[in-house]
Amino acid sequence: MIKKVNHIAIVVADLEESMRFWVDALGLELAHTEHVESQAVDVAFLPVGDSKIELLKPTDNESGVARYLEKRGPGMHHLCFEVEDIVAALARLKAANVQLINEVPVMGSDGRKFAFIHPKSANGVLVELYELKSV
Amino acid sequence: MIKKVNHIAIVVADLEESMRFWVDALGLELAHTEHVESQAVDVAFLPVGDSKIELLKPTDNESGVARYLEKRGPGMHHLCFEVEDIVAALARLKAANVQLINEVPVMGSDGRKFAFIHPKSANGVLVELYELKSV
Q1: CA distances, A27 to each of A15, A17, A21, B19, B127 (Å)
Q2: Which pLDDT score, from 0 to 100, does residue A135 have?
Q3: pLDDT above 80 (res B135)
Q4: CATH no. for B2-131
Q5: Between chains, do B74 and A24 touch, taking CB under 8 Å as contact?
Q6: A vs B: CB pairs below 8 A
Q7: What pTM was computed for the model?
Q8: Domain ranges, ordered by start, for chain B
Q9: Which among A1, A51, A76 has CB closest to B49?
Q10: ipTM value > 0.90
């Protein structure tokens, strides 16, 4: 059901400054950055093995990511697993009484489907599921 | 320099109870559990893709993991990258003025070398480096 860790998302206050650690010092590669308007974040994608580190920088003061940064400071924000079939995965989670933030998958602009599991049901971890668009 | 994400470590209060989410509901596979005396934790290893989720349950009240759980509750604790050459990686990090918790690699009982980077230098993330024993 779970294929792999798609990404680990880390909230940062300043994307350029954070590159000094993740890219310059640690040696990860910056693949690209993009602005995700729906989440009000700039995202830097750093592939590593069969996964990615995603650095998230809030671009307003009201998004979930902005409030996380304000309240808790920078750090790991969520963990995203890639699944074969997100509808089946959500049904299985719901049957196990897992609290879902999105009971129905959200469709991304790129055809990707995603949903979040509530941290209350996942040992304090905000877990995201992705079903990538089949090619 | 960085090969992949070796594991994402998550602190939990109760290992058996946490399996209900990660294994029963989410569908990850439990490979094995072990007690790590030096860190005073029980660890459950859940392989996924080319990485692993490691669930850490403190077995005393004084370890770093126990204090983390007491202070912040369950959640993501650290992120571990596998490197080719940990001595070279630490030298590069030090040259970039990154604050290291272990300036010299620690030798694990299984021949693995590891070192932690201070969260102050890594956007609030406790980052671990592994150099696995060559076989």
Answers
A1: 16, 15, 8, 34, 13
A2: 64
A3: no
A4: 3.10.180.10
A5: no
A6: 126
A7: 0.96
A8: 2-131
A9: A51
A10: yes
